[in-house]
């Protein structure tokens, strides 16, 4: 039987933190063994990011015993004055299904630090999960005021607007995404479809063609061209009648 190598396990966990990979089950497995063997006493100040990583992974896997153990250790060290620690409390509420309590935690963090990236992202995810669309739009708008170059957030906002038939606002989001990532054909397609929905057929035609320029066999873009051509043909027939 292979002997468990604590040093290698610690290095693996550090590497996962560096690359922002969650690998929750693996983290839980390694962390539990390190804690059970009391190897945490050798980590020095590195024990705190270890506990945070283990707590998040444990919450992701619904291992509340491990999560609570790690959170208690962090609470003893940092107290609830720490915004980073309070974010963990919010995540625990989320994992427990206590969404109102989680929302209160994230709101309190953002009142103290409106630029807190991690709390903003958790708040946005929570509002989306709770289908609070208008509050989600407000949160995303505030987030993008600070983190303008986050294309995923622009896409979230675009879809939120589109779900409420606010197509002009959704189109604006598409324009911002195209400016940020001009080689991403998905954003051109999104814009073309919104233009088509708003009966802006010339604009839709232009951007469907742009999609095909970037991705020559894109089926949805080809179908979009067919729809636009049909609409323009019908419009010409109506004009010819008069």
UniProtKB/TrEMBL annotation:
Tell me how this protein sits in the membrane: Peripheral membrane protein
Q: Which UniProt keywords apply?
A: Endoplasmic reticulum, Membrane, Repeat, TPR repeat
Question: Per the record, a Pfam family?
Answer: TPR_EMC2
Coiled-coil region(s) at which residues? none
Instruction: Give its localization.
Output: Endoplasmic reticulum membrane
> Which residues does the UniProt record annotate as the domain EMC2 TPR-like?
87-201
Q: What does this protein do?
A: Part of the endoplasmic reticulum membrane protein complex (EMC) that enables the energy-independent insertion into endoplasmic reticulum membranes of newly synthesized membrane proteins.
Under the subunit heading, UniProt states: Component of the ER membrane protein complex (EMC).
What's the protein called, per UniProt? ER membrane protein complex subunit 2
Origin organism is Rhizopus azygosporus (Rhizopus microsporus var. azygosporus)
| Encoding gene per record | EMC2_2
């Amino acid at each position: 039987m292979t002997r468990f190598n604590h040093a290698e396990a610690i290095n693996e966990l550090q590497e996962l933190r560096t690359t922002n990979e969650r690998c929750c089950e693996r983290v839980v497995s390694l962390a539990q063994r390190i804690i059970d063997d009391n190897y945490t006493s050798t980590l020095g100040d590195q024990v705190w990011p270890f506990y945070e990583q283990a707590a998040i992974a444990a919450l992701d896997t619904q291992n509340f015993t491990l999560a609570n153990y790690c959170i208690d250790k962090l609470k003893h060290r940092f107290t609830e004055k720490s915004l980073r620690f309070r974010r963990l409390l919010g995540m625990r509420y989320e994992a427990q299904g206590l969404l109102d309590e989680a929302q209160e935690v994230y709101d309190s963090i953002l009142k103290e630090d409106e630029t807190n990236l991690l709390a903003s992202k958790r708040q946005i995810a929570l509002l989306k999960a709770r289908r609070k669309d208008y509050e989600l739009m407000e949160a995303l708008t505030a987030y993008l005021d600070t983190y303008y170059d986050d294309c995923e957030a622009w896409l979230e906002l675009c879809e939120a607007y589109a779900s409420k038939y606010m197509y002009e606002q959704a189109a604006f989001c598409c324009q911002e995404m195209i400016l940020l990532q001009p080689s991403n054909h998905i954003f051109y397609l999104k814009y073309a479809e919104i233009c088509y929905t708003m009966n802006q057929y010339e604009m839709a035609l232009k951007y469907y063609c742009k999609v095909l320029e970037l991705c020559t066999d894109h089926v949805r873009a080809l179908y979009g061209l067919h729809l636009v051509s049909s609409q323009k043909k019908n419009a010409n027939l109506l004009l010819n009648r008069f």
